[in-house]
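Below is a filled-in request sheet from our internal design queue. Each sheet records the structural input a requester submitted and the sequence that came back. We keep these sheets so that new team members can see what a complete request looks like end to end.

REQUESTER: design group, bay 2
PRIORITY: normal
MODE: inverse folding
CHAIN LENGTH: 230
BACKBONE (tokenized):
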């Protein structure tokens, strides 16, 4: 095999990562990797793509994104179904029921409260659903869920494990690439994972692109400082 053609087609693999108790190699996550169709060279970088809640790299939209980003920007694009992904699979019937109930029960109340009062209003949380879908509810009812979203560091460790696996394979095969061109693009909850990645590996990334953050807005820079320094 020509070493320059590493990842020129979309590859899927299981990546060993730490367990819920941080024991090495106790879990596996599924990763998708796509490099430039023409092959890699000494300037080829790597890009972690981190989905938000409800997203999965199984989807055709992410397959197209990996292909387009790899070819346009000379990148090996890595998508990871990190911890918590499978509890947020899209159960359309359940989500539709949930959205209808939220809208019917809460929208008028919340809109009127905010329109008429400048102070804080208390919303009856028993009228709101916490779980994203039925699978998430089932996991949460276990004494220790097998797969959950905890806004912690395990998701970032899954992503970093996938990045390390790709770099290690390239080095073992003496394949050309640019280890300084490491980037992250993330949306929604994936942006929290991206921030945790740069907190755990602060010298590993040249840039992070937040295309729809869960924590930080232009008016909330203090939240970013807190996430990175707590």
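RETURNED SEQUENCE:
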């Amino acid at each position: 095999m020509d070493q320059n053609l590493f990842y020129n087609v979309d590859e899927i693999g299981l990546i060993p990562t730490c367990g819920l108790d941080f024991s090495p190699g106790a879990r596996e996550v599924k990763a998708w990797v796509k490099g430039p169709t023409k092959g890699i060279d000494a300037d080829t970088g790597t890009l972690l793509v981190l989905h938000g809640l409800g997203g999965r790299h199984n989807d055709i939209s992410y397959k197209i994104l990996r292909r387009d980003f790899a070819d346009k920007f000379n990148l090996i694009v890595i998508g990871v179904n990190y911890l918590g992904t499978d509890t947020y699979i899209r159960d359309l019937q359940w989500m539709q029921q949930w959205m209808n109930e939220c809208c019917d029960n809460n929208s008028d109340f919340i809109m009127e409260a905010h329109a008429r009062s400048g102070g804080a209003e208390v919303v009856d949380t028993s009228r709101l659903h916490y779980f994203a879908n039925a699978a998430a509810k089932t996991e949460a009812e276990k004494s220790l869920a097998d797969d959950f979203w905890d806004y912690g560091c395990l998701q970032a460790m899954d992503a970093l494990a996938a990045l390390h696996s790709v770099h290690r394979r390239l080095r073992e095969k003496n394949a050309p690439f640019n280890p300084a061109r490491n980037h992250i693009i993330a949306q929604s909850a994936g942006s929290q994972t991206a921030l945790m990645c740069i907190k755990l590996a602060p010298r590993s990334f040249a840039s992070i692109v937040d295309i729809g953050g869960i924590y930080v807005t232009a008016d909330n820079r203090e939240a970013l400082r807190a996430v990175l320094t707590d």
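SHEET NOTES:
- The domain at 3-84+149-229 is CATH 3.40.50.1820 (Rossmann fold).
- The mean pLDDT is 78.
FILED BY: M.R.
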